[in-house]
Amino acid sequence: xxxxxxxxxxxxxxxxxxxxxxxxxxxxxxxxxxxxxxxxxxxxxxxxxxxxxxxxxxxxxxxxxxxxxxxxxxxxxxxxxxxxxxxxxxxxxxxxxxxxxxxxxxxxxxxxxxxxxxxxxxxxxxxxxxxxxxxxxxx
Length: 139
Prior knowledge:
- The protein has helices spanning about 10-20, 25, 35-45, 60-70, 90-100, 110-120, 125-130; strands at about 1-5, 30-35, 50, 75-80, 105.
- By secondary structure, it is an alpha/beta fold.
- A 5-stranded parallel sheet has the order 3-2-1-4-5, sandwiched between helices.
C-alpha cells in the first residue's frame, strides 16, 4: 500500500508519536510525506519515506497528483483546526480528490487509529483490486 503522512506544524510531534507507535505496521508499505513531516518521522524511526516538498510549497499538491492518478491508498493528515493555513485551497483540493477517488483519509488521531488497525487486519484488500483492474491497464 502507498501511504502518505501530512501534519501541520502544531501536529508534527503527534504524527511522529503516532508513526512510532505503528512503525511495525508501516514498515511493510511504501511511505510518502510532505517535507518536514517526513524528515521528523525518519529521524525518530527506521522507516524510509519518499519526501515531497513542504505542504505550503506544493507538497500537498504532489500527494494530490498521486491521489488523482489513484496511486495513493491511505492518507494520514493531522490537520490543525485552530490555525489558519496559508495554503488552505490546496488542502481542500487534496481532501476533495480523496473523496472523488475514494481514498481513505484520517484528519485526526482517532480516525488514524481506526484506519491503521484496519490496515493491520488486512481490510484494505479492496485497494489491491483497484490497482489490479485500473482503467486503461490490460486485464
